[in-house]
Amino acid sequence: MLCSVDRITPHAAYLEDEEGRSLTVLPEKLAPGVAEGDMVAPGDDGLWHTDPAATQARRARVRALLDRLNRKEP
Hints:
Blueprint: E1 3-8, E2 13-17, E3 22-25, E4 39-42, E5 48-50, H1 52-70
Antiparallel strand pairs: 1-2, 1-4, 2-3, 4-5
């Protein structure tokens, strides 16, 4: 299961799966270094770990979409 990290607070981390469902986990269940906007997957150790390739691909898709939306038509 791959999820995006929506936001992290001192008491909860809010994730969203690929089908738009929300998950709430304790922040201590995130592996060190996980940040908002990262794509994460559960590991065998019980922690959610960043998937660097999925995170980079998602950010590239969002960047391309924003570029298209911000492009001015003549």
